Amino acid sequence: MKKLFAFITILSLFGFSQEDNECNERTIPYWWNGINSRIEGEKPSLRKTFKNIQKSETEITPKNGFITLRLNITKTGKFCDIETFQIDENYEKTEFNNGKLAKKIEQIAIKIKDWKRDKDYKTYNLIRLKIKDGKIEEIF
User: Bigger pLDDT: 58 or 40?
Assistant: First the structure.
């Protein structure tokens, strides 16, 4: 009986001692029900963040398409993780520069700070890069 009691006690301690992680919370879209998840300065800040790679990457293959980053941000404005989607001009899945460009862009994106919140929800934000004629033409 003592062993059973000890086992139940230990089991219950492990069950209640799980660390609460903000990144494990349910993600709500940034546009849902008036939630606003944004970076301070938004478009000017994003353009400044990606300025160097925009200037240095001038021979991107395939030559046209989009890279979309989905950044999951906690309710306190901290980065959780990132998903990357790459499509060519025909909306077919592709990899720009054999996947190397997306990796570089991800490394820049995860360093973005100052995510601001209007409400306390975990949300995601989308950053899109338009590739045209082998260059990053637009960031939005």
Answer: 58
